[in-house]
Amino acid sequence: MTDDLRRCSWAVSDPLNRSYHDAEWGVPVRDSRELWETLMLEGFQAGLAWIVILRKREAFREAFAGFDPVKVAAFGPEDVERLMANPGIVRARAKIEATIRGAQIWCEMRDRGEDFESFCWAFVDGKPIQRPGHGFVATTPLSEAISKELKRRGFKFVGPTIVYAWMQAVGLVNDHQLGCFRREPVAALA
Prior knowledge:
Layout: H1 15-23, H2 32-45, H3 50-63, H4 69-73, H5 77-84, H6 93-111, H7 116-122, E1 129-130, H8 141-153, H9 160-169, E2 173-174, H10 183-188
Parallel strand pairs: 1-2
Helix pairs in contact: 2-3, 2-6, 2-7, 2-9, 8-9
Pfam family, one: Adenine_glyco
GO molecular function, one term: metal ion binding
Keywords: Glycosidase, Hydrolase, Metal-binding, Zinc
């Protein structure tokens, strides 16, 4: 099915990309668990196309206990082996172990009274950055700063490019292109 809506160029060719773009991409996420889930999925995407992760997202959610950080933080070596044998997800040991460690860090932050949502949104003073809507960037000074802080805390697969893609996905930055039918509605959510 096609329609006459103008979308960001990356979202045109695949129906799943279109659906994700139209409903989720760039919408500000204010839920700690969902922010963490998306960051972990962006880490799994490293070296792959995002559509691969979208196609496997439900399998990831099932394999990682709904991305409940408390449950994932308790995963042990047997869980790593179970995940490595799961053809529904990206089977990369380092990324699986990074997700488990990421859940432990999320829990450590919570136990110190630091909310992951507040941590994430503090980088943009609680309000999404509105990019001009033309030209593509893979990183920004802010994604580099967030990456550095996440790495300092022990997160893995959080380089500046991954972090920028995550920022776009969770609405820390509105990067919908000029002319995209989602640009203004997403900007209004700020």
